[in-house]
Specification:
By secondary structure, the chain is α/β, with parallel strands linked by helices. It has a single domain, classed as Alpha-Beta Complex (Spore Coat Polysaccharide Biosynthesis Protein SpsA, Chain A). The chain contains 13 helices and ten strands. The strands form two sheets. The chain has a seven-stranded mixed beta sheet, sandwiched between helices. A three-stranded mixed beta sheet has the order 5-10-7.
Length: 277
């Protein structure tokens, strides 16, 4: 039996540093029926040249990730869709494990079908702040109010309306919450490696300021007020971190650094949110 086609959609913008490793990880999947779609936001570096080494499905579209992802989905021929960022690298069984879950639940004919699949993420990178970010992300696996699905059957994605084009921040949470209104979310053990690069605190906070200015569009939606409040609460993050103090302070310097980093992120994010309002 031929495996159903899986379309993996990668939005890019000046992603030359990361993209080669990202696409190589797709090529190294154990699943054998994949099309790669790269939707570029008019990069000025060699992003498109790198993408074209691996796929003919390279398009220009902007202005932000939600629009790029939806455009990629509109070009996809696959029965299933997987959305990843250009700084992500898939471990070899991600695609296979996602499709397997969908197949199994169809055989079981479950009452409430799976409409999306969460793939756990691990961070890596160079320098102290990348290590702090890796520690932070390690607390999020299995935390339902923080994780979001990346894999969807195409019919569910279309039925749910895809990503909200108006959202620049929180779009992953938003789509998952809409899918959950009718379907359940599955989960696999294979994970995505998120390349933080040579991360600096200044770069991190600058990015946080940019996205927080767009956050009101997400926070004002009434899909799931409880989850949204949890996601945007520094106290809830602290509760999560301190729920495992042995992990948090297994390396005291990293633990303190991560708490400082997260506090700065929320402070800058709060300023950006207020300025935008």
């Amino acid at each position: 039996m031929i495996n159903p086609l899986l379309s993996i959609i990668v939005p890019t913008k000046n992603s030359a540093v990361f993209l080669d490793a990202c696409i190589k990880s797709i090529k190294n999947q154990t699943y054998d029926n994949i099309e790669i779609i790269v939707v570029d936001n008019y990069s000025t570096d060699k992003t498109k040249e790198i993408a074209k080494k691996y796929t003919k499905l390279v398009f220009n579209k902007g202005p932000e990730r939600s629009v790029q992802r939806n455009f990629g989905a509109s070009k996809a021929k696959g029965e299933h869709l997987l959305f990843i960022d250009s700084d992500m690298e898939l471990t070899p069984r991600v695609a296979q494990d996602c499709v397997k879950i969908i197949k199994e639940q169809r055989i079981k004919n479950a009452d409430r079908k799976i409409g999306g699949i969460i793939i756990p993420e691990k961070s890596f990178g160079k320098g102290f702040w990348a290590q702090c970010k890796a520690l932070e992300r390690s607390f999020y696996e299995g935390v339902g109010w923080l994780e979001a699905a990346r894999f969807f059957p195409k019919n569910v994605f279309n039925e749910s309306g895809g990503y909200d084009d108006s959202l620049v921040s929180g779009e992953d949470w938003d789509l998952s919450q809409r899918v959950e209104k009718k379907y359940q979310l599955g989960r696999i053990k294979s994970y995505i490696n998120h390349n933080e690069g040579n991360l600096s605190l200044g770069t991190l906070l600058s990015k946080k300021m940019y996205y927080s200015k767009q956050l009101n569009s997400y926070s004002s939606k009434k899909i799931n007020n409880l989850k949204t409040k949890q996601q945007l609460s520094l106290i809830k993050r602290y509760e999560l971190f301190f729920s495992n103090p042995s992990k948090l302070f297994s390396n005291p310097l990293l633990g303190i650094g991560m708490l400082f980093m997260k506090t700065c992120e929320f402070a800058v994010g709060g300023i950006g949110y207020i300025l935008r309002k």
